[in-house]
């Protein structure tokens, strides 16, 4: 620390370098400060950090037009196709939608908004939510999620592990639960904690 204070007195350039190194040290506390003093290494670290940020941004979910056949799930960052058997969608009144890998991902996204002071950037300026769609487990066709009977905690996994499965008919949901375990519920009664515990998010 004494050596670094001496460097700060040698000139404004060195003082700015010291401030920069302290900022990096706070971000990367496990990295030795002596190594960080090597400007070439600092330069490489900044390039790597920039690349990681860019890569992360490229994978984040995004709003697509309502007729789009594929998108990226904002929860798991997986590519989603409209033909995927577990795909789900939030359709907005402005003609756009969000696509999700599974019903569980969509439910998690919707319910988690109630815990936030500000809604997700993906929801801002979108207008009203027109409908929530899930795939019926049997027909693999989209159904109205608000009218579906859901089964969670069954022994059947989805592409992301333990999953919530939707059924257009309650009797189909009951038959599925009798054969594969699980509890019957609906979108209005399923809680965020139940979704979290399902996958230990």
Task: Please explain how this structure is put together.
Mean pLDDT is 78; it is low at 1-10 and 30-59. The longest helix has 21 residues, at 39-59. It is globular and about 45 Å long. It folds into 2 domains: 2-59, no CATH class; 64-199, no CATH class. A hairpin with a 6-residue loop joins strand 6 and strand 7. It is built from 7 helices and 12 strands. It has 201 residues and is of the alpha+beta class.
How would you concisely characterize the structure shown here?
The protein has 201 residues and is an alpha+beta fold.
Strand order of the largest sheet: 1-5-4-6-7
Helix-strand makeup class: alpha+beta
Strand content: 15-25%
Shape: globular
Our count of domains comes out at 2
Low-confidence stretches: 1-10, 30-59
- Percent helix, as a range, is 25-40%
Query: What is the CA-atom radius of gyration, in angstroms?
Result: 24 Å
Number of helices: 7
**Could you give the order of the helices and strands?**
HHHHEEEEEHEEEEEEHEH
Number of strands: 12
Q: How can the largest sheet be summarized?
A: 5 strands, antiparallel
Question: Could you report the average pLDDT, rounded to the nearest whole number?
Answer: 78
For the record, give the distance between the C-alpha atoms at the N and C termini, rounded to a whole number. 41 Å
